[in-house]
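Exercise 3.2. Students should predict the tertiary structure of the chain below and write it as structure tokens, then compare their answer with the key that follows.

Predict this chain's 3D structure.
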Amino acid sequence: MSKNFFITTSIAYVNSVPHIGFAMELVQADVLARYHRLKGEKVFFETGTDEHGIKIYRTAAEQGISPQEMVDANAARFQALTSALDISQDYFIRTTNPDHKRGAQKLWKKMLAQGDIYKGTYEGLYCIGCESYVPEKDLIEGNCAIHKKAPEFLKEENYFFKLSKYSTKIRELIQSDTLKIVPEARKNEILNIIGEGLPDVSFSRPQQMLPWGVPVPDDDTQVMYVWCDALSNYITGIGYEEENETFKSFWPADVHLIGKDILRFHAGIWIGMLLSAELAVPKQIYVHGFITSNGQKMSKSIGNVVDPFGYIDEFGIDPVRYYLLKEISTTDDGDFSRDRFTGVYSSDLGNNFGNLVYRVFSMNEKYFEGRVVKKVMDDPVSLVGAINSLSGFIEMYHRAIDKFDLKAALEITWILVNIGNEYVDRTKPWALAKVDQEELAAVMYRLLELVRIIGVMLVPFLPRTAEKLLVQFGESGAIGDLSRALTWGGLIEGSVLVKGGVLFPRLEEKVV
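Answer key:
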């Protein structure tokens, strides 16, 4: 019986168009979803858009359109980004969908029945950008630390959630790794926050202040605040409303993948909500960092916002995926610059990997008419004196993915690329062709088999490139048994291979 694997991204707020940071989160989640499918697991991968809130209501009013018109247009751009990046999600949820609204209201009623929602008066500082109240101690010179603007003072009657009731239990779940937070630094961060005790949180807004949202059940004067609306998408997207077979099969989530700025909401408020509703908590929360642009925080006013669509159109899908996965730390902040992007494209993808594939297939076609002449069971990794065997590198690759270090997994793959290039330079097949056909056949088998295994390793990361490569071996790109596909000796003697084109064309010089 195959294992189930449920992974979610955060849902993107649609007050503007997609940015490169969300593109990175999509790609990271996609790698994990594809990897677990390759392992034979039944995967459900959910992403989507968060479409309610005062920021959207006000922005739509400024543009002279309805909130629904605005979210429809922007959500379409986020859906287009998933296609543009070759993201393999199973469901794209929108929080304006009727089934999501009904599911969120069901969750509210469950928490209310537990005695965990009550009415009270709240007054405090509210940041429109964060869509949340901000403690005065967290302000910097009177401004929100993230949005650099002074919050508004609000006093209103709201419903509250008794998060404080679950503070101790949440701490225990995280400390014991029942709810595992990755990386460890983020686990320590949230434990420090919880150490102060989690306060009750405002759970609704007056309808007259926020007409755009999910109505509170049995109280049309109030609209759900972001927590019960947006956070509940992780269960409404898999059928919580009806508690159908998908929900029963996939909940709890194996991984919530989020940015570091929303950790306290997901590891604090969301977990409290699940405990109140007597639902299982997610198994893991993976936390990534931010992307800067040329060393600075991205800002429209500075003009350094990176448009993912532009880079995809110019360079292709897989080069963008590669940069986001290998050149930016999986769990820390990283920088995106055009100079670095073009340098990585040329060196890693063009000169190293693309050149290795082209040379190996060209030589095999030249010397053996594209046939695999001789099968050998020793591999280039051991022959060039690497510290690890090929199987050792593959084991490291699996461990890196399991630890949510996708950058490390790609770096391990590129060590094998470099070993392949080194082996070509060391053995000099063009010289062997003149003196020793038998040894040449053995050398070509080692190189072809190494390239095949590298192609398999790249399937979750660079799916289109991997498919092009594996088709040259007569495979469709459907791996089947991943363990067997990554075992040396899969290339059959007598097979006829097909030389393909250049995987990564040279870049023309561009004026930046």
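Discussion points: The mean pLDDT is 93. Residues 84 and 135 are 39 Å apart (CA to CA).
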